[in-house]
Design goal:
about 180 residues, mainly alpha, about 0% strand
Length: about 180
Amino acid sequence: MTLGEFFAELAKNPEILIFFFVVCPLTALLALWLGRGEGHISPWKYLYSFLVYLVCIPGIFAVTLNIYLFLFERQSIFDADLYTQILPIICMIATLMLIRKNVSFEEIPGFGKLGALMLIIGILLIMMWFADRTHVIAISFIPFWQVFVGFFVLLGLIMLATRHLFSTGSSSEISQADDR
């Protein structure tokens, strides 16, 4: 089964997707009402962490898929599938807005890892778009294995840079917390 076939099956039976993408913001809304002002306390912050990952993974995938389809495949906006390309993004935004009303994202365990993931995906998409627009794809004098190794070295440097970017911010926050 290909990804296109999987999306076609989901489009034939959208009830599961609609249920999932309606329940997530409603759960965040219920948690907002029941735990108002207590979002930073242990049981609530783990519920929020679970909800963040539950909506952000499909949402980030949908954003990445949309960017790929619109930039590289040149798909028309009128051909976008509402259930797999639009609904996850709307659900992600709505759920994150509801969670943000009760707790700061810095207090949610693992939220910084999603930011690093989005940064890496964004950098890779920009690199792919640049390579696509400049037509630097056909490198005939370099063996394929060297291009492959170069890609993974570049990917490793990007991951190292994002880890350094996020670790310097968190270590300064830790030292400020120790001073208090």
